[in-house]
Backbone:
């Protein structure tokens, strides 16, 4: 079974995955297109960490540390970021984090990754803007998406033939510009949201 979901809040994602396990669906592959396999309904304790690894061996060592502590790694790769664990030893601790400070740290790592992606994409957007393939004028004046010389000075059948011929290409140019700008904005928003969750979790840690 597959389900499409998007989470930025790890606690909410953990809660949802626990509910799915209680309904008889065990996580097999992480989202945003989650894959589940049928399993006996069980109250499964699931926790999520966020880490990237440069070396495969470092990733394997990371998994081994948790598995030795009673937590089985059920989804995630060395480059995926999100790492999913389920508790397999009832005598182990109920959390993979030793304290709330380390639990909050995963949001900081997530924010750093979002900021890194923003820094990578920003130069591409700036270059596109300077070349005229991306800019606010495209959205305010869609005519700039049409490159046929003298198109808007034409009339009658000649205009409509040229207009209809180029419209599919203009739409592709506009879509490409919109997607680039949307991705850039989304990374900004995700970075802000991740930092907000980090500060909230850190504040919670300080109150205890």
Residues:
């Amino acid at each position: 079974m597959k389900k499409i979901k998007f989470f930025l809040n790890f606690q909410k994602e953990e809660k949802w995955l626990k509910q799915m396990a209680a309904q008889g669906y065990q996580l097999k592959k992480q989202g945003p297109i989650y894959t589940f396999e049928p399993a006996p309904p069980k109250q499964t304790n699931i926790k999520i960490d966020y880490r990237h690894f440069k070396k495969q061996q470092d990733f394997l060592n990371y998994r081994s540390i948790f598995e030795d502590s009673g937590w089985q790694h059920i989804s995630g790769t060395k480059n995926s970021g999100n790492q999913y664990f389920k508790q397999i030893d009832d005598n182990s601790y109920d959390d993979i984090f030793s304290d709330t400070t380390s639990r909050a740290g995963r949001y900081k790592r997530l924010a750093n990754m979002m900021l890194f992606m923003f820094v990578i994409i920003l130069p591409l957007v700036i270059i596109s803007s300077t070349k005229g393939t991306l800019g606010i004028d495209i959205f305010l004046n869609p005519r700039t998406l049409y490159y046929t010389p003298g198109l808007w000075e034409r009339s009658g059948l000649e205009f409509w033939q040229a207009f209809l011929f180029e419209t599919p290409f203009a739409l592709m140019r506009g879509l490409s510009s919109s997607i680039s700008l949307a991705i850039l904005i989304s990374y900004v928003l995700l970075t802000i949201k991740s930092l907000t969750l980090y500060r909230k979790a850190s504040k919670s840690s300080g109150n205890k």
User: Anything to note?
Assistant: The chain has a mean pLDDT of 83. Residues 156-206 form the longest helix (51 residues).
